[in-house]
Amino acid sequence: MKHHDEWKDLFREWKAFRAKTVYERAKLTAASGRWSRLDLSPAHVLELLDRCPVLYREAWVPTPNKASSFALDGFTVGDGWFCILDALSAKLAMDKALHVVQVKEKFGRLAVHCARDEGARVDRRLDARLHIALGKARDRSMRTCEICGKPGTCEERAGWVTVRCEPCLRLDEMARACRRIADRTKGLDFTEFSADKNTQDAVWLALVNIGHASIGQSPRSRARLPDIDWKNLCRFKDVEAVMRIATEQLWEFATKDAPELQKKLR
Question: Exposed, middle or buried, 140 (CB in 10 Å: 0-12/13-18/19+)?
Answer without folding.
Answer: middle
